[in-house]
């Protein structure tokens, strides 16, 4: 029996050092078999010279990087321009990675929470200035600043002063299996209530709420829990009813579903010997547990673009406007509500987890949008073992964005 790998400590600082790049590492990818890349785009699209050239370049980058599989999607002027899979969803069975392949999208999941928060505000559950302790059944207070409340807006912009302190030895964040062994509510109580087993004073920064940017998955999931309390249902169900169903995202869900097993991509960790990952799940699922196909992600991105222009159907126009309005300025970028606004006018998010790397974004100026996803980690924290994988991922992203923005 192949031993199960240990999950490394999770990356938590997407865009901390660059407003463009995901959390990029690089680890050696070996043994990846070359394949003819799967065709998803419609026949009329493949006749386009620019699309054909893009496909050739993208396929070459994927092949040399030995990413197991890859999905690339492009929308322009409200139309799906490109949707294609490359490589393998399952290397052992040689199953192609396609637009219908489903896999987790890591921290891109947080963009759902942005919509859910604005929907909760529309429904009167709270507003951005609401102190979280006005809602929670337990108290969350920075012991260094006990008189300064943590507010909804702080959780929504990574400025709460809460930081993630889980280590590799603590299995609560991720567990092998289809569902986690603890509820979100129970985890958050253990994490924030003094004297409980996961409580640490170091979980709070030595800075008052709202004063500095510090990416936090725990703070993100705490915000989702506020919605659970006010809505009287799980966050998963709230998103299902208010986002997945209205947009008819039929592949979108949170935890492993046996009925969809044939559609899932296998996930791989690029260690010195590439390692297949068994199914794992996370208690903090709101921050990174969304599972979806590339084609459904493009439908979601279409709604995001329409929402930006004031024509979305999930939220009122003023709610969408607030979603993309800068709420906090950090070094090199500005923060909307779970969206990063870059100096060149892009609005982006992305993620990297165990066996996952992805990037989503759009350019309002050119009315173009893009999505890419691969079933291996490209986390930046250890790029010494495979700088080529990191560089290839960055090159692929640039190629995709440039193609999306072409007139």
UniProtKB/TrEMBL annotation:
It comes from the Bacteria. InterPro entries: AmpC-like (IPR050491), Beta-lactam-related (IPR001466), Beta-lactam/transpept-like (IPR012338). Coiled coil: none annotated. It comes from Chitinophaga nivalis. Pfam families: Beta-lactamase. Residues 60-385 form the Beta-lactamase-related domain. This is Beta-lactamase family protein.
């Amino acid at each position: 029996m192949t031993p199960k790998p240990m999950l490394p400590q999770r990356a938590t600082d997407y865009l901390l050092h660059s407003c463009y790049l995901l959390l990029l590492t690089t680890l050696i990818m070996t043994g990846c078999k070359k394949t003819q890349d799967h065709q998803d785009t419609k026949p009329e699209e493949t006749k386009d010279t620019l699309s054909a050239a893009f496909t050739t370049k993208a396929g070459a980058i994927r092949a040399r990087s030995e990413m197991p599989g890859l999905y690339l999607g492009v929308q322009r002027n409200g139309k799906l321009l490109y949707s294609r899979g490359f490589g393998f969803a399952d290397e052992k069975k040689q199953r192609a990675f396609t637009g219908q392949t489903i896999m987790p999208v890591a921290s891109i999941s947080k963009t759902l929470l942005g919509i859910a928060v604005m929907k909760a505000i529309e429904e009167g559950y709270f507003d951005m200035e609401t102190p979280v302790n006005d809602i929670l059944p337990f108290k969350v207070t920075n012991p260094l600043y006990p008189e300064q409340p943590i507010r909804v807006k702080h959780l929504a912009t990574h400025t709460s002063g809460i930081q993630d302190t889980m280590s590799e030895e603590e299995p609560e964040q991720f567990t092998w299996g289809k569902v986690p062994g603890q509820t979100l509510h129970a985890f958050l109580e253990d994490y924030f209530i003094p004297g409980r087993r996961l409580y640490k004073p170091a979980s709070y920064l030595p800075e008052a709420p709202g004063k500095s940017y510090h990416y936090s998955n725990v703070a993100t999931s705490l915000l989702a829990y506020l919605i659970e309390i006010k809505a009287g249902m799980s966050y998963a169900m709230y998103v299902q009813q208010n986002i997945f169903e209205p947009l008819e995202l039929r592949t979108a869900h949170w935890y492993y579903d046996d009925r969809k097993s044939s559609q899932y991509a296998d996930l791989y960790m690029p260690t010195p010997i590439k390692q297949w990952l068994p199914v794992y799940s996370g208690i903090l699922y709101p921050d990174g547990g969304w599972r979806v196909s590339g084609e459904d992600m493009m439908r979601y991105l279409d709604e995001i673009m329409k929402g930006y222009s004031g024509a979305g159907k999930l939220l009122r126009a003023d709610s969408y406007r607030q979603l993309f309005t800068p709420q906090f300025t950090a070094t090199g970028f500005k923060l909307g509500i779970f969206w990063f606004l870059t100096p060149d006018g892009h609005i982006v998010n992305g993620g990297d987890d165990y066996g996952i790397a992805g990037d989503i974004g759009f350019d309002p100026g050119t009315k173009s949008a893009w999505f890419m996803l691969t079933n291996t980690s490209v986390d930046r924290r250890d790029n010494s073992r495979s700088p080529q994988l990191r560089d290839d991922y960055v090159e692929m992203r640039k190629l995709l964005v440039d193609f999306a923005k072409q007139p």
